[in-house]
Design a protein that fits this description.
Length: about 190
């Protein structure tokens, strides 16, 4: 369930003991090295999951999902990878890669489409004081319509980093980007506030 949820929700993950445990063991053992090699060898790719309106809205909306392949070409889902990336300090670097690739896709997609991209950001990105300036530079570089970018923050990240999250939301709004709260009400901590 956790693998499906962290892979973007609205999907299933069929557990395979052989695949999941062997990949999990290898990543846990050599996590930092595997993540560094994955970043250096660009073994990431993005999947754009359409979000379809059931009320007839014709605008195009896409959830941006990260996928990773290991050296042998096996797909590693984010639920098996991102926690290790967070522990090894690579989350913000991965977020920037995802955002850059999404902006490239958005720019290539053309202005004919009214497309909105939902991009997840991690706690590490919320805490990065240089991130808003970097986003602003990228949006101008690609000449994108800022209102069509929605950054998604998990409820857990907001609870853990309330001051950084508030500053992040304020800065993104000042650039006309939107921010969404992901998995609202799913955190055990939410009931304690």
């Amino acid at each position: 369930c956790e693998v499906a949820r962290t892979s973007g929700g609205n999907q299933i993950h069929t557990h395979s003991t052989i695949v999941d445990e062997s990949i999990g063991t290898d990543i846990e053992k050599d996590g930092d090295q595997i993540i560094r090699e994955t970043i250096d060898n660009e073994r990431f790719y993005l999947v754009y999951q359409p979000i379809v309106s059931l009320k007839g809205d014709k605008s195009e909306q896409y959830e941006v999902l990260l996928r990773i392949t290991d050296a042998d070409g096996h797909v590693i889902l984010p639920g098996q990878f991102l926690a290790i990336a967070a522990r090894s300090g690579h989350s913000a670097e991965i977020d920037r890669w995802v955002i850059s690739k999404t902006f490239t896709t958005y720019a290539e997609h053309g202005e004919d489409h009214d497309s909105t991209f939902f991009i997840k950001v991690t706690s590490a990105t919320l805490a990065d004081p240089e991130f808003p300036d970097w986003v602003g530079e990228k949006l101008l570089e690609y000449d994108l319509d800022f209102k069509n970018i929605v950054f998604e923050i998990s409820e857990r990240s907001v609870i853990s980093n309330i001051n950084q999250a508030a500053a992040f939301v304020e800065t993104m709004h000042s650039m006309n980007c939107r921010v969404a709260l992901e998995h609202f009400g799913a955190s055990d901590q939410a009931t304690q506030i």
